[in-house]
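Batch manifest, entry 17 of 40.
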Amino acid sequence: MSSFSKTYFPKLNLFAYNDIFQHIKQIWDPLKKLDKVILKLLAEDLNGDPLEKTPGLILDSSSSIKGIAVERWIKLENPIISKTLGIWIDSGTTLEPTAIIKGPAIIGKDNEIRQGAYIRGGILMGDNCVIGHCTEIKNSILMNHVEAGHFNYIGDSILGSFVNMGAGSRLANVQFRRLEEKMNDFINVIE
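Output type: structure tokens
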């Protein structure tokens, strides 16, 4: 691990997928290879009951959308997997109705994916996390015990263990701009 990985993420050794932080130069480097790492993990290591046979899930494997929609409350007794959809969810995780999960996504043990959550893919999630009502996540790493209770947006981000997002928080990969800047396609330099 790099020294700054340990500085920014003191519980990194408890995160099952901490190898993604090996040999990095910048703290955000793991996000650049996240989809490839998730697909490699799905191909090599992860086993589970076929996601396709799990009652209460609607599957879509069309070319433009690869994911699931949750129809009813589900508490997973065993891990479930779909290599076609690029999704693996570990045991103990609760899925609430209307949650949507697109692959590639790896979701650890004992998580809560609550009503209306939208997991857009490129997700590597540890254990004991809460993804709440109307929370959207894409291309992000969530270590253990992360809580994004409700009305959050988490994009292109790494959240360390025990981070608790307040209601309505936004983590964006695009600079927030005024209307004039958008209309003139101008981005100010951040210093």
